[in-house]
Amino acid sequence: MYGTNDPNEPHDPRNIPPDNEQYSSRYDRPPNQHMAPPQQQRGNRNWTLIYPLLAGLVLLGLLVAFLVRNSPPLRVGTLNQPSGATVEIDQIRQRVSEAVKPTIVQVNVKTSKGGSLGSGVIIDRAGYIITNNHVIANSESVQVQLADGEIRDAQIRGADPTDDLAVLQIQPTRNMPIAKLGDSSKLQVGQTVMAIGNPLGITQTVTSGIVSALNRIVSEESGGATLPDTIQTDAPINPGNSGGALVDLNGNVVGIPTMAAIDPEFKTPASGVGFAIPANRVKFIAPQIIKNGRVINSGRAALGITALPITQFVEQQRELPVDRGLLVAKVDAGGAAERAGIRPGDVITRVDNVEVTQNADVSNYLLNKRPGDRVTVTLYQGNTEKTVPVTLGELQIPSR
């Protein structure tokens, strides 16, 4: 029997006890004291410890089962939020979607080169719809698909290429739903917004994001409009969203999604960088178009000139005194520049403290000005440099 230390028992090297049992048999008892075989000792001692351990495990299991059964389910994304916050925000989004989607239409455009589509927002019970000018530009005919799928012919009431806005009109339906234009001046960076439109022709699509920035100045590609005070958002905006609605969680339309930034490396729309025309600009422009068919008062400042950037060829041909600036080609009759004594052939080099080398330098600077504001223009008349004060006029927006 292994581990008995019986001197009469044949020696078997396989029966050498482990080191801990050697320690126990050699040092844990007085010399020559009889003791039971180690296996039996070990068994008695272990059972004395196992009974309480088993009882403890049973109690622990019962406690865990009780806690699992009575604990609320774990909510993903609710860390450091009040209980039910995620459910509440989801319900708000659903209510906003249900309220606004009936006011969103798909704008189907036929041109000489084929067709295109965009979105629009019903803003008046008389059947007026706001959209982007670039959606209906060069159109031969326009149709509108309502939220219920009905298609109606649309007339272009008027357009504002400078602000990239246009107003359509359809025969109104009974109880036509209309969107409420909110106060975009109250928007805050980080505020939740939703974009509703028809991206890629997938009708009545809702995306969600935040206001990423405010008062951005952006220019559309291919010589399009330069838009001041736009709303930047990471709510996905794709082709077809143009002219739709950017709404807050109160269901107010706070902007008209217009464009996405272009990734300069891949020449594709950049993900999560979109821009919308603020609702306050829409509220200023749309009523003028509805009433007059065009914009009477743009509210934008203008210098009243047509100018060309100075190139090396132009400099040498005209023998100009400087190699940079804007060469005045035309002065609007009765405009701000003419009243200040600016003439064709003058070279403008600065407006206030801003150096100008292209037309966008002037137009972008004047975006922050209003008609009646005063600026200082530095220019050359012949070889003489002059500084003249100019009281700005109002930008005239051409009719479509």
Architecture overview:
The chain has 400 residues and is α+β, with helices and mostly antiparallel strands. It contains eight helices and 20 strands. The strands form four sheets. Strands 1-2-3-6-5-4 form a six-stranded antiparallel β-barrel. Strand 10 and strand 11 form a beta hairpin. It is globular. The N terminus is likely disordered.
Would you summarize the structure shown here?
This protein has 400 residues and is an alpha+beta fold. It has eight helices and 20 strands. It is globular.
Measured between the Cα atoms of the first and last residue, the distance is 110 Å
Which sequence of SSEs, written as H and E, runs from N to C? Answer: HHHEEEHEEEEEEEEEHEEHEHEEHEEE
How would you name the oligomeric state of the polypeptide chains in this document? single chain
Radius of gyration: 39 Å
Overall mean pLDDT: 84
Q: Which residues form runs of ≥5 with pLDDT under 50?
A: 1-45, 73-81
Beta percentage is 25-35%
Major beta sheet, specifics? 6 strands, antiparallel, barrel
How many helical stretches?
8
The tally of strands reads 20
Structural class: alpha+beta
Percentage of residues assigned to helices: 10-25%
Question: What order do the strands of the largest sheet run in, or round the barrel if closed?
Answer: 1-2-3-6-5-4
User: What overall form do the CA principal axes indicate?
Assistant: globular
Topology:
Layout: H1 19-27, H2 38-70, H3 85-100, E1 104-111, E2 114-122, E3 128-131, H4 133-136, E4 139-145, E5 151-160, E6 165-169, E7 192-197, E8 205-219, E9 226-233, E10 245-247, E11 253-263, E12 268-278, H5 279-292, E13 301-302, E14 305-309, H6 312-318, E15 326-331, H7 336-339, E16 347-351, E17 354-355, H8 359-366, E18 374-381, E19 384-391, E20 393-394
Antiparallel strand pairs: 1-2, 1-4, 2-3, 3-6, 4-5, 5-6, 7-8, 7-10, 8-9, 9-12, 10-11, 11-12, 13-20, 14-15, 15-16, 16-17, 16-18, 18-19
